[in-house]
Design brief:
Helix content: 25-40%
Oligomer: single chain
Structural class: alpha/beta
CATH topology of the largest domain: Rossmann fold
CATH architecture of the largest domain: 3-Layer(aba) Sandwich
Length: about 325
Amino acid sequence: MIIVTGAAGFIASNLIKKLNSEGFNHIIAVDRFDNPEKNKNLEDLKIQKKIEREQFFEWLDKQNEKEVEFIFHLGARTDTAEFDVDLLNKLNTEYTKKMWEKCIDMQIPLIYASSAATYGLGEFGYEDDENKISELKPLNPYGISKNEFDKWALKQDKKPFFWTGLKFFNVYGPREYHKGRMASVILHAYKQISDTGKMKLFRSHNPDFKDGEQMRDFVFVYDVVNVMIWLMHHRKNSGIYNLGSGKARTFLDLVKAVFRSMNKKEDISFIDTPEDIRDKYQYFTEAKMEKLKSIGYPHEFTDLESGVDAYMQEMKL
């Protein structure tokens, strides 16, 4: 059996769908199943059992560890505007420490979700060099909680026999409709253009960037899933890895791709970035992907236009 935490969420439900397509149907889905909209992500998936997040470790202790083939720990409090430090520490740091220790005791390989939010403003670049992780300065409590676990993991003398932390960049794609304001800009663009025929972007407040030319590393969720499944089969070269497309693109590129894919005439305007986030606004992110490629990952990543087209096609289904 394969355990997936955060199972009803965006990335995890896409992962389960891909696992099902490869014949892995003994999936243990771990989450809080109290959100009807989010639970729709599980309706078309083959799942052996659902376990509430708070009951998971008790359930795991009763299992024969030989039955558990792999754990994908993707569950977390992912709201970058969450300022309850105790909650983030409990769900993102301490829960993952317990998962790590169980994987050591039961000899279960582990992939867990870190985040590109750990890089902060990118003062130290976006290279997944484990020697630099202690120097990083995340901009919000969410990023801090993820970085604290990364730092803790690297200091441990005992580790799972295979483990990987993945720093997800700006992931977009199907099954994110429940995320509200935390959904990708692509989904927000689709909704705004559908409703108004127009799209508003944040104006640049940095003289080095023109309006709309702020850049992000946008990565298609199917690419993210492919990396995780490849690592599950690979099971060597443990460590912390970036997971982006490796190519920064502008918000204008993104929105123009959405207009084109929707067969709509471009109508883009700009509004001021809210003052309360202006000093923490990232103008450039780009994952350095050489480390993942160096261990043999063979696949190319979907370019933004192709990813938007594929996503928009799914929107129409």
